[in-house]
Amino acid sequence: MIAEDIKVNFPTELEVPSEIGTDRIVNALCAWRLYNKPAVIIDFGTATTFDVVGQRGVYLGGVIAPGVNLSINALHSAAARLPRIAITKQEEVIGKNTVSAMSSGIYWGYIGLIKNILHKIKSELNYKMLVLATGGLSDLFINEVSEDIIVNKDLTITGLFIAYEEGKY
User: Fold this and answer.
1) Element holding 27 (H helix, E strand)
2) Is 154 a catalytic residue?
3) Cα–Cα distance for residue pair 148/39, rounded to 1 Å
4) Domain ranges in the chain?
5) What are the tens digits of pLDDT across the range 86-125?
6) Which of 125, 88, 122 is nearest to 103 (CA)?
7) In sequence order, what are the beta bridge partners of 52?
8) Are 68 and 48 in contact, with CB atoms under 8 Å apart?
9) From 23, 139, 148, 154, active-site residue
């Protein structure tokens, strides 16, 4: 957590800036400080989030979708015959048993979610953007989505450090 006396100095266009999670704003801060370009940051955490930094280095907003493991747990909890599974890359879409069908649904479903949300964001803004990915499951999905996505697993921790350093003064 960022202490109350450390201010994250990053402008936003949010209606209620205090609603944004610390992880999301420090990811945006870090993306802008490291790359100095408009960016979409995909974070594969409890939620799968897409955070958007615009051309002037302003946090524009984002998208929050259920995280991969949250979706797996929801399927297992809500349907008596569906087991808890570990997500793995699926070569084939059509599953031949319950586990492979669930794995395929989660894997290819998230590939579709990522591609579609990125497409909608880029269409809405209509300018070139860097795409970054972070979080534990980023490697699993990103190569299937695009070769142009930069994986930076240290984005959040680096962003926390930047926020701390900038907030001290």
Assistant:
1) helix 22-35
2) no
3) 12
4) 17-167
5) 999 999 999 999 999 999 999 999 999 999 999 999 999 9
6) 88
7) 40, 61
8) yes
9) 23
